[in-house]
Amino acid sequence: MKTRKLIMLLSTAVLGVLFTIAHHTVVGQTTAPAIQNVIGAWRGFYQALGGPDTIGDPDIVPGNFVIGSQFNRRFDAALSVGIDACIFPGEGTIAASDHAIFSGKSSEGMAIADVALQDFGGGAAIFDGSVKIHPSDGTRSEGSLIVLRNFIGNPDEIPSDVTGDWRGFAVSAETGVRREVTAHFEAERNAIGLSTTSFGGEVGIFPCIFPSGLGTINAQGDLVLIAQGDGERLSVTGKLDAALGPEPHIKGAYLMKHNDGFEEGGTFEIVRVIIHE
136 and 178: one domain? Predict the structure, then answer.
């Protein structure tokens, strides 16, 4: 009987020690950040930067990034740049800091992308940064790259249709200067004519013009847009609200990044223009 009590006391004591160790282990541990899922099709724009050591087309050209598989922080992808679509298959890594590095190689040369991830949830995300391209002919091109992954569509929901002309204003967070905003959007449509989560268009935040734009929107009105101008690129997040008046409004935030390193952010509000026939 005394032996049984002793065993029970020892067991209780051991459990108490294990609980204390486990408790301190859990409390003392730093939770590892979740691994970002970067799989998907990313569409956007590439623009070569000028300079004596850079050879490249200064025009705005398509820049697309397709990530087909991912294992932990390493992913397999293919980067395509230009109208003729030079394709560079390769692999990359995504750090806990949202910083991604990609290296691709083909018979056309080699490309290295250094980009930062912004994840907005629901599938929508942006990669924004730079690309160095070393074609097999010995020339070199370095430029900016901004690409967008769309919201994941729900077959039971129809995303908001943003087609039309928009007008409004933006206010710089740095200077407080109020600027005129103009935009024209066209929703991409499915086989039966319904709007999808993707749309294209152009945006102007005076005096900057962004003639090439791609956006994504979900059924709740959450919106993400990227656009490329001559020497600067734009990213926008916003919310469409159809309850503010006869025509829907979009309110949100913008960030302009210039190729010389200058950045400007702020807020904006635009309303779809009523067309009287």
Answer: no
pTM, entire model: 0.82
**Is the CB of residue 237 less than 8 Å from the CB of residue 250?**
no
Q: What is the CATH number of the domain that holds 198?
A: 2.40.128.120
Range of the domain at 214: 164-272
At 174-210, the pLDDT tens digits run: 899 999 999 999 999 988 888 889 999 999 999 999 9
Q: How many domains does the chain have?
A: 2
| Residue 175, token pair as written in the block | 């200077």
Same domain, 136 and 179: no
Enumerate residues 6+ apart whose C-beta is below 8 A from 81: 46, 61, 62, 63, 64, 88, 111, 131, 133, 145
The helix (H) or strand (E) run that includes residue 212 is: strand 208-217
Contact 130, 112 (CB under 8 A): no
The pLDDT tens digits of the residues spanning 32-61 come to 678 999 999 999 999 887 544 444 456 788
Distance CA 164, CA 154 (A): 23
Q: How many helices (H) and strands (E) does the chain have?
A: 1, 16
The rounded percent of the chain whose pLDDT value lies above 90 is 58
